[in-house]
Amino acid sequence: MPLHCAQRPLRQVTPGGRMTAVTLLDLAPVLPVVVIDDVSRAVPLARALVAGGLPAIEVTLRTHAALTAIRAVAEEVPEAVVGAGTVLRPAQAEAAVQAGARFLVSPGWTERLLDAMRASGVPFLPGVSTASEVLALLERGVREMKFFPAEAAGGAPYLKSLAGPLPTARFCPTGGIGPGAARAYLALPNVGCVGGTWMAPPEAVRSGDWGRVAELAREAAQLRRPGAVAC
Q1: Helix-then-strand count for the chain, H and E
Q2: CA distance linking residue 79 with residue 56, whole number of Å
Q3: Is 111 part of the annotated catalytic residue set?
Q4: How does DSSP classify residue 225?
Q5: What are the tens digits of pLDDT across the range 46-65?
Q6: What's residue 160's pLDDT?
Q7: Cβ–Cβ contacts within 10 Å for residue 7, how many?
Q8: 128, β-bridge pairs
Q9: Annotated catalytic residue: which of 58, 75, 76, 79?
Q10: Which of 17, 58, 64, 168 could form a disulfide with 85 if both were Cys (CB 3.0 to 4.6 A apart)?
Q11: The domain over range 25-218 is classified in CATH as 3.30.460.80
Q12: Which residues are CB-contacts of 47 (< 8 A; sequence separation ≥ 6)?
């Protein structure tokens, strides 16, 4: 069974104009997790995040507007790598990819959901919170995962303790993480990026303060660790 990161790498243009293959965890140090209620906010929000240096954007499937928002960003902001989060059912994985999602994220996983995400043809991050769940995914050839809910499940100390016995697993911790805690996670060898919501404060999104969003994204992008690993 092929390793997950080798199945469908994402493509990114380097500063020199070359196209390179990277994994989702290596696109940026922070993966913005956004909830969109108003589709008209989706495109300017995505443009602000990309302008700040965060190209990957997770749109959670928690609202009726989510799939339409994903489609709008995919069509109108080609420089963004838009994906779907809170994927709970196989049908959602299929619908998200049809809408233009380029990756999938789930808070946990079942055999059916894992099969559907694998069959989707796009990178995916199944959620884990225990060592046994990590082992089960490694047995299935999945190396990149979402650690959720990160802060409640043990935080950076917990992930640090997994790095020794499970060195091939890499994580995107998400859940309760702010810019301060993000640094501790990103200092770990088994963390590629962190997921967070602080770059898109609800009041800034409601008021259309895209300058503030871009600035917060720019600050988050500076959290990048040197020497990120790509498949």
Answers
A1: 10, 11
A2: 9
A3: no
A4: P
A5: 999 999 999 999 999 999 99
A6: 98
A7: 16
A8: 147
A9: 58
A10: 58
A11: no
A12: 77, 80, 210
Sign of CA dihedral 187, 188, 192, 193: negative
**Residue 11's CB: how many other CB atoms inside 10 A?**
10
Residue type, 192: G
DSSP label at residue 14:
-
Q: What pLDDT is attached to residue 11?
A: 56
Residues of the chain with pLDDT under 50: 1-7, 13-15, 19, 226-231
Polymer length of the chain: 231
CA gap 175, 134 in Å, rounded: 17
Structure tokens at 125: 């991050």
Q: Is 215 exposed, middle or buried (0-12, 13-18, 19+ CB in 10 A)?
A: middle
Give the amino acid at 177: I
**Domain spans of the chain, in order of start:** 25-218
Residue 58 annotated to the active site: yes
- The one-letter amino acid code at 148 reads F
Matching residue, tokens 């660790």: 225
User: Closest Cα partner for 53 from 77, 85, 35, 27?
Assistant: 27
